[in-house]
Amino acid sequence: MKSQVQPQVQVRATPLFHGWWVVLACFVIACFTWSLGLFGASVYLQVVTTERGWAIGTVAFAITVFYLTSACLQRFVGRSIDECGPRPVLMVAAVSLGTGVALIGQVREPWHLMLCFVLVGVGWSALSTTGLSATVAPWFERHQGRSMTLAIMGASVGAMVGVPVLLALVRHFGMSTGFAIAGITTTLVLLPIIATVLRHKNPQAIGLQRDGDRHGGDGLQPAAAGSEEPSGLVSAATAAPVAPASPVAPLASGLPSRQAAFLLWSAAVAFALGLMVQIGFATHHVKLALPHMSLTEAGWLVSATGLMGFIGRLVLARIVDGTAVRWLAAGALTAQVLALWAIVIWPSHAVLWAASLVYGYCVGHVTTLGPIVVRREFGAAAFGTRYGKAAMLIQFTSALGPAFMGFMRDAFEGYAPVLAVSAVLDLLAVAALIAGRRLALR
């Protein structure tokens, strides 16, 4: 009796799900945005106060205008991405960000600087957490936390690279030309990426469900319309089908409207306070380091802080989908409290390095977990609009960070009282995270 050999059925390998290309594009956007935005602000503060002789509080207030402008646009950005897709919104933002940075080097009066930061704020509003989260959210269900974390991980690369590069450009070309090179380069790099990769609003536009699942649930991922299939062959015996996503009903869907609103706003208040302190710290990081080290070493300190943020985001990407995200955020904020108090109590070169590295490790957690908390508790439907509401409070409050630290530093002629108050604000954020969910579920 002849043995029958089971024929190997050959099928073509499918291309990478386009959602991961969206994540990669957002990663690159975040690199440039955080380089010139959050972390670049510390360079603007140092260079402009030195070159123009203006008070720290004056320049810090102009940087606050940048965040206030962004705050005013948050709800509009989220709704616009939900309705029109990310491409037109992010292209306008890229031009605005690049133009604003390029013009900072040309300022002659403080009000000129504020106009520049209005442009930077328009760019930041769509190219930072809210815009990138709203861009990625429609593409994933099973990998929602990981995809958002990986996308915003570019912020840590921006922190590592941005400050040293900006300082080097200013040192070699001067403030005017250095900032112009940074702004123009950013626009020229981001526009093609946004135009090509972010052309689709969601996976349904290319005939897929979230995570790349096919309609009908056969688990195979077809190529996007107009794309070519790779020539490689895989064995059907080893091509394991992927089960379609089975979304779990979000927590807020089972709550009365008042409790759901409390759940949302408790998260918003917590991340508003946490990011207010974090943005203020990042803006003044170079200035508060200068009594203990040179300007060049201060730049490397910020870069090392960004490296720790990158490591923190790598860890977060691995654990976030299986972790209670409110508790994770509360832990990160608590670690930042300890780092701030260490600088206040033991102000020295070694402590500043150690505390900055601890603080930096937690930066990505605080920045990234806000939209993830809202996404997990409220679901993907109209995420941009929902998070846009919370982001307005977050942005308006966090926008006060640079000016708050700047004016307090001028008043007390030092950063120790500012950092002490900042630690207390972080503790209030921890309380809001923990109490908010418990009270909402009573």
What is the CATH class? Mainly Alpha
CATH topology: Growth Hormone, Chain: A
In terms of DSSP E residues, the strand content is: under 5%
What order do the helices and strands follow?
A: EHHHHHHHHEHHHHHHH
Q: Which structural class do you get from the secondary structure elements? A: mainly alpha
Percentage of residues assigned to helices: over 70%
Please list the strands of the largest sheet in the order they lie side by side: 1-2
Can you tell me the overall shape?
Answer: globular
Number of strands: 2
Domain unit count:
1
Radius of gyration: 23 Å
How would a crystallographer describe the biggest sheet?
Answer: 2 strands, antiparallel
Q: How would you state the average pLDDT, rounded?
A: 79
User: What is the level-2 CATH architecture name?
Assistant: Up-down Bundle
Q: How large is the count of helical segments?
A: 15
Amino- and carboxy-terminal Cα gap: 71 Å
Low-confidence stretches: 9-13, 216-246
Q: Give me the CATH superfamily.
A: MFS general substrate transporter like domains
Give a written overview of the molecule.
- This protein has one domain (15-204, 250-440): Growth Hormone, Chain: A.
- It is built from 15 helices and two strands.
- It has helices spanning 18-36, 40-52, 56-84, 86-104, 110-127, 129-136, 144-152, 154-197, 257-289, 295-319, 325-345, 349-378, 383-398, 400-412, 416-440, and strands at 10-12, 233-235.
- Strands 1-2 form a two-stranded antiparallel ribbon.
- Helix 3 packs parallel to helix 5 (110-127) and helix 11 (325-345) packs antiparallel against helix 15.
- The protein is globular.
- The relative contact order is 0.16.
